[in-house]
Structure formats: C-alpha cells, structure tokens
Write a structure and sequence with these properties.
Blueprint (H helix, E strand, L loop, with lengths): L11 E3 L4 E6 L2 E6 L2 H14 L2 E3 L4 E6 L2 E6 L2 H21 L11 H14 L4 H18 L9 H18 L3 H20 L10 H5 L17 H10 L2 H13 L3 H6 L5 E6 L2 E6 L13 E3 H7 L4
Antiparallel strand pairs: 1-2, 2-3, 4-5, 5-6, 7-8, 8-9
C-alpha cells in the first residue's frame, strides 16, 4: 500500500490506476480512489450487485447482457433497487405457471418446456432451439420413460454431438446450445414439479451435458529434427519467427505486433546484448529475455 494511502478492508489498491479494487473470478472491479467512498461502494455492491458506471453516471446493474441504471446516489440507487427486486419477486409469484403438466418421457419434457417458454417467458426463438435439440436427442437416443433414464442415455448423445463437430468441422457453438437447452428443460421440470414419476439423482444424470470447449484434441508438436530442418531451409523471416517463439515464447499475436523498438541494445563488459521488451497483451508487463550478439546477427542476417 503506498505511503499515505489508507487500507480498506476487503479491497486491494491498483498503484497505476490509483483506485481501490476487488478481483472476483479473475476480473478486477474498481471502486474509486477515495477510501471512504470505495468502502461504501463495495458494501453496496455486496448488498445489491450495483456498480458505479462512469458512462451512465449512475449505479447500475448488469443483467442478461443489459445495463440497468438505478440512480446517481447510493441512497437513491439502493431504494430503486429494492423496489425493482420486490416487483420482480412479486411478478414471479403472480406469473401464470402451467400446473397441469405431467411429464413421463423425454419427449414430454421437451414439449412442456417449449410450451412454458412460449406462454410464460414469451421467448419463441429460444423455444424453437429447445424443440430442435430434443428432436435430435430423441432421433438418436429414443423417447425413453423417465424412470428408465441412465447417464449413458445422455453420454451417448453427448459423444455423438462432439463427434459430429470434429468430423464435419463444425463450430463448438453448434454443440454447446444443445447441451444447455436439454439440461435446462429437465431442471425446469424438476423446479415446477412436472415429473409424473420419480427421477432419482437428476443432477448426476444431466451432469454430462456441461458446456465446454469440446473433447481435447491431440496437438501436433514439432520434433527437434523437424525444427532444425525448417531453420536450415526456411526464409529469414520464418527462421526468425521460429527462434523468437522458442526463445521468448512469442505467439502469433505477439509476432504480429513485434517492432524494432521492442529490442533494446546495451553493452555489458564489452559484449553487446539485446533485450526483448515487448509488453504482454494482457497486463502490459514487459518480458525481458536477453539476446547475445551471435543470436542477434542470426535474426538480422548479420546486420
């Protein structure tokens, strides 16, 4: 903590930006430079989730990709948020939830969820996605009674989807929405008590439908002999790119941003050395691996 800067419980301090902050799930959330105001804003955030948005000049809540402003002062924002939360809770209790659904098969789970989306959520586009996902699931795995469901039922379809992604070169987003919608349908049926039969351990049944980047694929790694061959026969630019990648861990984006200014020349004991100082894209910290003169001449073709 810099001299003269008061500590705030629960918050760190970013020296470069001069603001108090909290890192949550890898994301820095800033609360201002004044310690009292930062502490008050942090308390409001913990209570309501509201954050000060400089562009809006109000305390706002980000929900479903939208920014909802609640007021320019903490008192107004807290009062408006409490009214908003109470209204939302009342609407959820007063909304018409279909109570006559009794689902006993996989097909009926999809049909009930689709109808609920259209009637209660007024979301026909998402309902269409759900309908399509269940159509594919039933076409591959069959319409099974809920009491006969096993993890293998979902696992086989899961593998089928990812195999199709790999075999046909489809995007990951082709499979992920299908997993998400089928899982959401089963969880909604449980929440609304629509199951006509007991479905034991539903969480374990649908756990296989978690979204992720797809099955891990084996990455091709060049062997030392292959790299030596490329360095012997490649153009100067290709050789420089390979060696910079090996010595400095430079990736494709780093190589695209590489400039002469990122190499700093200095003399140490009569020997000339070059320091690579390109900032990292994430945090702008400079990486400083040294280069000897012989290595520099190789990169620059003797210049």
């Amino acid at each position: 903590m810099p001299a003269g800067r008061r500590k705030v419980p629960g918050l760190g301090f970013h020296k470069n930006l001069g603001q108090y902050r909290k890192v949550i799930n890898g994301r820095s959330i800033y609360f201002g430079s004044d310690p009292d105001e930062a502490l008050a804003r942090y308390g409001l955030f913990l209570e309501t989730g509201l954050l000060w948005k400089r562009g809006y000049r109000q305390y706002c809540l980000q929900q479903d990709g939208k920014v909802i402003p609640f007021g320019a002062t903490m008192d107004i924002a807290r009062r408006n948020f409490n009214a908003f939360a109470a209204k939302a809770q009342q609407a959820s209790h007063e909304s018409v939830h279909p109570t006559d659904y009794v689902v006993d098969t996989v097909r009926e789970v999809g049909d009930a969820y689709v109808e609920w989306l259209i009637e209660c959520k007024k979301n026909p586009s998402y309902a269409s996605e759900v309908k399509h996902a269940f159509k594919e699931l039933i076409a591959f795995s069959g319409d099974v009674p809920l009491e006969h469901l096993t993890p293998k039922y979902f696992k086989d379809w899961y593998r089928h989807c990812w195999k199709k992604v790999n075999d046909e070169g489809l995007q990951v987003n082709w499979a992920n929405p299908r997993m998400r919608t089928v899982k959401a349908a089963f969880l909604r049926c449980r929440k609304e008590n629509w199951f006509g039969v007991a479905v034991p351990d539903l969480d374990a049944l649908v756990a296989v439908l978690q979204q992720h980047g797809g099955p891990q694929q084996e990455q091709e790694i060049f062997k030392p002999a292959e790299l030596r061959s490329l360095l012997k026969t490649g153009e100067l630019e290709d050789r420089a790119a390979i060696l910079l990648g090996l010595n400095c861990a430079i990736g494709n984006m780093d190589m695209g941003r590489l400039r002469w200014k990122h190499f700093n020349r200095r003399e140490i004991g009569g020997d000339i050395e070059y320091i690579y100082e390109q900032p990292r894209g994430k945090n702008q910290r400079k990486r400083r691996p040294p280069f000897g003169l012989s290595r520099w001449r190789f990169y620059t073709n003797g210049k």
